[in-house]
Amino acid sequence: MAITLFIADLHLCSEEPAIAAGFLRFLAGRAREADALYILGDLFEAWIGDDDPDPLHRQMALAIKDLVDSGVPCFFIHGNRDFLLGKRFARLSGMTLLPEEKIVTLYGRKMLLLHGDTLCTDDQGYQAFRKKVHQPWLQCLFLALPLFIRKRVAAKMRADSKASNSSKSMAIMDVNPQAVIDTLERHQAQWMIHGHTHRPEIHALTANGNPAFRCVLGAWHTQGSMIKVTPEDVELIPFNF
Fold it and tell me: Any idea which positions bind substrate (predicted)?
């Protein structure tokens, strides 16, 4: 049976071993049934460079590589937590890095894939921050710093982000409906799959003058979340680790 799977927002880190173990089981089980696996960002809680010797990173890379070597290609779109994940990790894991917005055609459906943070346009403070940290010169400068300094900077940024988000309304941190429509229409697509908001749902809307659908993946906090696309259906599926 033809199946393509999508996941996002695992936020893997050494402090959450249950999620890492659940992901390993997913890679060794459900993912093996797929034609392809797409990871739509925030696979890791933080990423300060491909040279970070964290053993969890190598463990996950080798597990993904094993999936790829079994015949299931894996594609990755950067999230807001792991936007610095680079070519070195991609080579080790066998993943193909995709641009921040990617159109794929699956079983007759034209689908737009993205992480989802660019749709949250009401959060102007975050969008300004995002624009700044995605400047190539700043990324090169950061990656040239010693690893221990990068760790301190990343920890400070995460603390600042947590404090900032605690004072924001849930509505501000969700997608802007018009941004969703504008993005679909710019790509002339009727299907969108993204993560980031941690609000799993399949939303019906109208774009390009026709019915459209926005499929939102859940985060892997206490259970897994995936979207399964087949010739017959598009399903949002929660599952136990």
Answer: 80-81, 123, 161, 165, 168, 196
